[in-house]
Amino acid sequence: MAYDVKLIGAKLRRWENYLKEFRxxxxxxxxxxxxxxxxxxxxxxxxxxxxxxxxHGNAAITASIINNYVRxxxxxxxxxxxxxxxxxxxxIMVCSLKQSVNIPYIQKMLPLGLPEAEVRRxxxxxxxxxxxxxxxxxxxxxxGADDVLHSPDAQSEDVERVVYSAAIVSGFSKLLTEKMVHxxxxxxxxxxxxxxxxRK
Length: 200
Hints:
single chain; mainly alpha
């Protein structure tokens, strides 16, 4: 693959500056009035403006995508075609998690039927974690892309290494998420029983 090192370096710097400033809205910043679908889509596109269009140039968040999430029971259904703060919290978490986690795992991570106070607790923790991971990701990319960002002798191969590193980190992160979600509700004793059954 051939890369323009200057172009990539500039993009990495811009992405770093963007992530430093990016924040998901806090619970109290979400609308406290019921919204119609077009309002929900508009707000989500603003809140999650880092999400890329798909390969056909379609927006990352559309009414049909939200309807699919409702149909698949990933989020609560709207009430009389209106969406509440709880819906917005689910959608922000689902849409951002969907970039790296498959739907069955998201369903386990964000169960339905929770009281609003519990959704708020989960969402506020998610917002904080999202910000913390953004900052950690900046450091990870900065250290892995040091040559691309600072060396006048950087080559296309140095960019290739950054691309591979990002893909590998993404893969390991996905695997870790899936392994951890599988362990939800398990104990050391129940895991020992599983191992013993496999030995028999």
